[in-house]
Amino acid sequence: MKPARPSLSPRTPDPFTHSKLPDIEVEEDFKRIGERNKLIGNDLDQIGAGVARLKGHGQ
Fold first, then answer.
1. Reported pTM
2. Using H for helix, E for strand and C for coil, what is the string for the chain?
3. Mean pLDDT across the stretch 16-40?
4. Nearest of 33, 17, 37, 35 to residue 25 by alpha carbon
5. Rounded to 5 degrees, what are φ and ψ at 14?
6. Residue 43: predicted pLDDT
7. d(CA 43, CA 37)
8. CA distance 54 to 59
9. Confidence check: pLDDT of 53 > 90
């Protein structure tokens, strides 16, 4: 015998659509991550250029 499935009454909020968690702004987060990645990329380019100059002085 299968256990009875609990029925959701109209008063019971759907657990998948009603949550106490804040909404996630994915698009905005991806935009910020992309901007941060560009800044990190620029920093790495500058570091690489500095390392190349130091290597040139050491030879």
1. 0.53
2. CCCCCCCCCCCCCCCCCCCCCCCCCHHHHHHHHHHHHHHHHHHHHHHHHHHHHHHHHHC
3. 86
4. 33
5. -65, 125
6. 98
7. 10
8. 9
9. yes
